[in-house]
Amino acid sequence: MSTAPRTARGNRTRAKLLEAAEAVFASVGYHEASIVKITEAAGVGLGTFYLYFDGKQAIFDEVVEDLNRRVRHAMTDAARNAANRMEAERAGFRAFFRFTAQHPALYRIIRQAEFVSPGALRLHYTRIVNGYIEGLKSAQAGGEVRDMDPTVAAWALMGIGELIGMRWVLWDEEGAPPVEGARPEVPEEVFEEMMQFIERGLAPDTRPSSTPPQEGTLP
User: Fold this and answer.
1) Per-residue pLDDT, 215
2) pLDDT tens across 170-215, in order?
3) Annotated DNA-binding ranges (predicted)?
4) 2 strand-pairing partners
């Protein structure tokens, strides 16, 4: 459980703790992380921590929620002025890859959540998918996307972005030493190949519908 601050100073202190916790969890992992390490990184006293969070699990869950909120905002904001669904897909994926390049902790912490906080992991993905489903439904209604199950499509599209980002943003080339800090964005040729695959999968079916032969005519 976490407690909302009542003052602007409290908000700043809480934000410093979240930022420090994000860095600590990403660098040493949940089990090696400690409240002492987090407060030292934040530059606040140990007792101050408990004004805002019950313990390590509480701040971990809050870090997951904070990362989720920020990445969804980045994607939504980027796609807001897109003229159609395909443009929205491009803008949203670019924003996602840009965010993960700047915040590689997103991948590292979310993967830890699978083991230390499954509920937070599920909530992270569900929130992203729910917004995706609504966008696909709207595009289907406007004839921009072919007839498909929007829930299946949303999970599939999120999986594409997750793994492309993991391979070309998070991972170093084989044999290269890991690099800390911001990561490179997805190479343009990889991005275009991915988008061609997605656009073909979402494109409306333009084939003429087959009609049964009229009585008295050859099939």
Assistant:
1) 57
2) 887 655 556 666 688 899 999 999 999 999 999 998 766 555 555 5
3) 34-53
4) 53
Report all structural domains of the chain as residue ranges with CATH numbers, in order of start.
8-173+181-201 (1.10.357.10)
Q: Please give the Cα distance from 65 to 127 (Å, whole number).
A: 10
Residues 6+ apart with CB under 8 A from 17: 38, 39, 42, 44, 48, 49, 52, 53, 59
Give yes or no for residue 72 having a pLDDT over 80: yes
CA distances from 69 to 65, 102, 149 (A): 6, 15, 26
Percent of the chain with pLDDT over 70: 87
Condensed to tens digits (0 to 9), the pLDDT of residues 29-43 reads 999 999 999 999 999
If DSSP states are collapsed to H, E and C, what string results for 56-92?
A: HHHHHHHHHHHHHHHHHHHHHHHHCCCCCHHHHHHHH
